[in-house]
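anyone seen this seq b4? input:
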Amino acid sequence: MSEQNFKRPRLSLTRNIPAHNEYTKAIDVEYRDFAFNEERAPENRGRWRKDVFQVNEDAPVDLEIGTGNGNHFKHRSLSNPDRMIVGLELKYKPLIQSIRGCLREGAKNARICRYHAMNVDLLFEKNELNNIYIHFPDPWVSPRKPKNRFVNRRVLDLLYELQQPGSHLEFKTDSREYFLWSLEQIKESKYSVEFKTLNLHSSEKSKENFITQFERIFMRQGVEINYILLRKPHA
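predicted toks r here
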C-alpha cells in the first residue's frame, strides 16, 4: 500500500471515555511518567533519549510493537538495563500490566504508549530507534483484510527509516499464511534477511529465543512458529 492511498487509523481518546476503570485511570495518573496516552505520546517524538529516558544520545532505544501481557517487554527491559525500550499497546489492561511488571522489578528503562502501530512514524524521528520486535500480530486472514496486516511494504519502509543502521527487526507469527505473504513484502523492502525459518523451535535460534505467552500456547498445540530476523545494513 502506498503512502498516498493510506488512511491513518483513528484511535479513541482516553479523555473521552464515559466510564473509567482502574486501567484507563492509571495511564494518566499512577503511571503517567511511564505510560503515555494517544495524545501525549506524539509529544515525545525526537525527545525519547533526552527528555523521556534522560540518557545520552548514544543510548539504544528499542521498540516492541504489541506488548500483550508484557512478559517479553519485561524480559527485554530487565535483561538489558543499558538499552531503553518503548512498548506500543492499544488495550488498557495489558498496557498497564506491561509497564507495571517492569516497574515492580525495578526497571528504569521502560516506557509504554497507547498508540496505533500503523502511525509509528508520528512517535519517532528518523534514526531514533534501534531494534524492533513484532511478535504475533493479528494475522488478518479474512480474504478482504490483508491490507490491515502490519508487516507490509509501507510499514517496513517506515520502520527502516526510523531505525539506526545496524539495527535489527524481529518478526514472529503462528500464521503461515501471514508469514509467506509478508516474505513477499519484505523482498521489496530495503532490509537484508539475516535469518528465517518456518519452524523456530527446531532451528538454531531456538536456544536464544524468549518464549512469549502466545508462543507457549501455540507450542502446546503443535503449531510451528514462523520467524525472520531482518537487518538495516550499516551505511
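The chain is about 25% helix and 15% strand. The chain has a mean pLDDT of 95. kinda curious what u guys think
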